[in-house]
Amino acid sequence: MAHKYWEAPYCSQHSCSLRSMASTILIVGATGYAGGDFLAHLVTTHPELEIRVFVRDEAKAEQVFKISRRICCILGFGSPDWLHVLETETAGADIVVQIANTDDEELSFALLDGVAKNKNKNGVYIHISGAGNLMDVSAPLGVMQPKVYGDKSDKEEILALPIDRPHAAIEQGLIQRAALTNTRIAIVSFPMLYGKGRGTVASHAGHFRTYVQGVLSHGKPFVVERGENCISSSHVSDASSALAFLIAEVLKGEKGRIRWGREGYYMVESSELAFKDIAEEVARVLHGKGLIQSNEIDRLDAEAVSKIWSPGPLIWGGNARARAERLRELGWIPSGPSRSEAMEDEIDSVLLSIN
């Protein structure tokens, strides 16, 4: 079955099928929280790019068009022939960004293999991962761990982390496959993201929505054990600017400073907080809205937290301390609002979605 394009002004089957002289970027995951914000950022910062996004259906395409009508939406994600569609589209793109599910091996390896078949032999694959691989599942929860991972100084250690950690296995597998096929790959690892996103489908992080719901059902904010575990974070707009910064380097061609493969591992971070600090900010906003009775923070054990959300003990009680050494060395500077400054808008977005 031939795939189709969602017909809209500036994005018909005819116009999408014609390759312009502009560089082409294909994005998978553009309707998610991070992906939607990145798409909105990319439209304004790189008007010279031909932007193509892979979406499930016409309803999602309409949401994407609210960002810009010049985006080309390719329908068919999840259809019976979606892998064939991906391979065809990927082979014709200059830059491919996987910002959907970082642990989806079928999707990620299909995209990488498509880039390996790029007709001009100059395609690049950028895989968005997460700092969950820095969480030591054997460490005590709610306790600050001293280890901070730098993407330059600790690169070899990061790429040899135990594969039972989140994202570690797929990161290592993609780098190995890219080396075998002589394909340029960069992995960009996002920290815990916060803030209201600029996308039109998902405007807040799923883990944060779950936490706010858990607080409302529990009656007060909570931490895992002492809540002293530290988590690197970034406003979602800083994650988008970091990714766009790297893409700008790709577009420079031979003058670009981006590295690939084992040298192409880039962390993003702009701040670090103990989880109890996040809980206190949530308490401040929800108490101010009259949704909880006090600012008191509960200390819960892992069993109690897992009843609220099964991954909660590790996500809310683990450490993931990162340093974006490579990006900062290249000149990227985060400028998004702090967690405190962004908290009320983000909570308003969550409350709107659950009411």
TrEMBL record:
Which N-terminal residues, if any, form the signal peptide? none
Name assigned to this protein: NAD-dependent epimerase/dehydratase domain-containing protein
